Amino acid sequence: MIRRILIANRGEIAVRIIRACREMGITSIAVYSEADKNSLHAMLADECICIGPPEPSKSYLNIPSIIAAAEITDAQAIHPGYGFLSENAKFATICRECNITFIGPSASAISNSGDKSACREAVKRAGVPTVPGSEGLIRSSAEAAEIARKIGYPLLVKASAGGGGKGMRIAHNEAALKHAVTMASNEAESAFGDPGVYLEKFLEKARHVEVQILADEHGRIVTLGERECSIQRRHQKLIEETPSPALTNSQRSKMLRAAVRAAKAIKYTNAGTAEFLLGPDGQFYFIEFNARIQVEHPVTEEVTGIDLVREQIRVASGEPLGYSAVKNQGHSIEARVYAENPEMNFMPSPGIIRRCHIPGGPGIRVDTHLFSGYEVPRYYDSLMAKVIARGKDREEAIQRLSGALDEFITEGVENTARLCARIVRGDRFRRGDLGPDLLEEYLPMNTKTA
User: Fold this and answer.
1) pTM of the model
2) Catalytic site residue from 120, 227, 292, 394
3) What top-level class would CATH report for the domain 132-201?
4) Less Cβ around it within 10 Å: N or C end of the chain?
5) Beta carbons within 8 Å of 130's beta carbon, 6+ residues apart
């Protein structure tokens, strides 16, 4: 069993991993940038080490610094969390070459899933339905226009190495498509160092549903149910829940089986997520596979009782899962609280939190790294907390979540808690009528998102 883990991340996910290590009797080692020297994850870890200046490229994305930190502290393994280096095949390879266990999938599985165009083709060959689109990467705007004439508009231009909504553009005509290809390619090269893009038919009014899987190194793959993630802003998720209010038992069963086929197609191990679009007609289509723990993993933990981070560590240690099926009970909803001002087009709101109140009560869980006096830095993702509610049914989870969001206080820093509270109290959310357009109903005219 692994005894010393270096956590190559920050914020709430670093705190989450530290807590899992503590329960397992594992020594946790935090890395931090100069901007995070007073952060909660650095305070809570058993050991900590500074890895560089505030800029991510010089700290949390600096592979030599992180490997050196692991070697200096005699870490046996590295947990990358989500974001940063979590889906970097080169980093996973270097870890292996340095005899450090990478807590996640193999480098080849990361490559197989990370090239979204190639992944899409692999799962298609395995019999998983995919959205109509280009066969591999597109090489020019002219080729994109030719494909568009065959499958029709609107189209979604997507970065092959993308994630987090970056390198993604919608086009409704040929002129817009040419611009979208250029913009998405440039953004992808800047964000991921890879300009490759491909096309998918944009399914209007489609819902975003994903399946959580765990796969050990002994050939067993277990599904842990689905999560509905349709409420998004700028292609980034804001509210997630499980189970999805849209799926019938028959649809759910088919989607879970498709997720297993997708995982097998890319030879996946550890925790991962198969993402699907669910059309208004009830048909679903695979869009991508995320080779890491997801931000929204707590809702799955709440209805299954399984600690996904603990399972990641067990699988990386070579242990078998020890079960073939998981029973889900109740309903869970998560609201992401960002340090952003929804009234000002979600402008980031870094600064010092003068007073902080974290909600609680029956069925409420808050994953966060905040405390009174903490300074939210401007260098990183603006996620401050995840407020998670669990109930015996969806209505109870909604009631608990809306009340908890009302209690969330961060004086000195704007946040999205009140916006999320209004959404979950709304008639449309309560009906389960979810979609990417729902958020628009709660924003001022000058902050409508594309």
Assistant:
1) 0.92
2) 292
3) alpha beta
4) C
5) 120, 123, 124, 285, 286, 287
